[in-house]
Every structure is written in C-alpha cells, then in structure tokens.
Amino acid sequence: MVQATLLLLVLSLALGAHGVSARKCNLMGHWVNDLGSNMTVVAMNREGDFSGFYHTAVTATTNEIKVSPLKGSLQIKNQKNQPTFGFTVNWTFSDSVTVFTGQCFVDEDGKEVLKTMWLLRSHVEDIKNDWKATR
Fold it and tell me: Is 48 left (phi over 0), alpha (psi -120 to 50) or beta?
C-alpha cells in the first residue's frame, strides 16, 4: 500500500509538472513591457492572423504619443505550445513603421511571457539618408 501511494504521488507530481510546461500561450489580451508600453490583441482568426492596438511609452519624436493599430500573424501550423509570431505597428503620430517578431513562452510559474525584437523604419527625405532610417 505504501509503495502504491508513493507511486501515485510521484506520478501525480510528474503529470502536474508536465501540465505546467504543456500550457499553451494565448496572445489575446493585454500585455505590458518593461518600459511601460502596452499592446492589446483584440481579434485573432483560425489562421493566426490578429489585430489590436499598441501604445508606446517611448519615442524619438516630439509629437504627442497616440495609440496605434497593429496587425500580425501567429504561427499556428504546428500547434506549438509556445508559438512564434510577428506584427507590424503603423504609428499614427509619426512617419514610421515598426515590425516586431518574437515568441510567447510559459515560464516555470505558469506565467505567459513575450520575448520580442523590433525594427523601426522612419521616413527620410532622400536615398542619401537611407543609412539613418532604420533602427
């Protein structure tokens, strides 16, 4: 009886740990980054295309910061638990566009975390200044 109880306890711990790691990331909802910028994904279709809004907390322009639309795509083809994604923000308050690419992770505590990289393209007046348009 003691062996059976011990086996069930070990089995339940193993299954419980597997359940945390198998938790699937859900991109829908509200996200806030370390600098206070926030993103809200409001719609996603079966193909993984999504849309929402981005409100940045940081900018290089002196213009008033405004909420800007975003459109993206989530990799759902392989039904991964921690999927990759990408999205574009067309800034409503400046003449620039930013693309983000990243992955949604579930950490050891079961918390969903987005890790991203971005590339921003600003408008320049001529091709001679192309070198300073991308950050």
Answer: left
